[in-house]
Task: inverse folding
């Protein structure tokens, strides 16, 4: 309950964004392969940013 008002770190925000993009990519790939691939590329960019943050220790 006390974590309810805790602000999310940049890493948590990026991980949430990554999960959303993966879900969107999966949904889109069932209808439009190209759009799904574009979302997957966006997700990979976010994954790279997550790796950078983890490497710096934030």
Result:
């Amino acid at each position: 309950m006390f974590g309810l008002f805790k602000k999310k770190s940049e890493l948590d925000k990026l991980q949430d964004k990554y999960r959303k993009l993966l879900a969107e990519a999966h949904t889109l790939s069932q209808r439009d392969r190209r759009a799904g691939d574009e979302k997957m590329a966006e997700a990979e960019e976010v994954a790279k940013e997550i790796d950078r943050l983890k490497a710096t220790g934030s």
